Amino acid sequence: MLDFHNHIIPGIDDGSTDIETSIALIKGLQDLGFTNFIFTPHTISDVHPNTPDTIAAGFDILNIAMQNNNMNIPHSYASEYMMDDMFHQKLRNKEPLLKLHNDKILVEFSYIQRPDHVENISFDMQIQGYEPILAHPERYIYYHNKWEYYYNHLKELGFELQLNLLSLTPYYGKEVQRIAHKMLKAGLFDFACTDIHHLRHLEALNSSFTKDSLAELFENYHLRNNELQA
Fold it and tell me: Is the pTM of this model over 0.90?
């Protein structure tokens, strides 16, 4: 299985803080059945203003550590882009964005308020050939009261939807868990990933899932992570 949403590159966002943690996270996810990784640190203009260069530098450090630990598994990098004004400016300036695979990019919304101009930004992405995957839509509480309308509308706008695996548990709260299960049963999710940041996330994943149960989840709900493998 491919995990294409995680914060394992150390020291450049709110994820792993050091190489030792990064290696422990990768080994833990391998034990759960993940065999391929795309590392996706945040790009958020006012908090984590990463660039392709800063992400590439962090990836190189992690890559050396993986080689030193004989971790010969497929891995690459992209980013999780906050769809804020700076992101829209990057689109207007035609700045190249880091892709997951082919033309797919990983994006997220603010947790605090519903984003403005989603239609305009999604149109600009598609004009430039990008295919957006929206991270953890089940965690956007402002959509919950009309979840079927909003999530189907996002699909109509061209977004594919990525579930956080821990959303199927009470980790983010029972309301997020409730909506996550409803969306899963409605067939709204295209992908599922860990969004892992730290060892507490790994502990929570291990307490809720096994290698077999994750494989069954991906098969039963036709989750398409492996289509993004190089």
Answer: yes
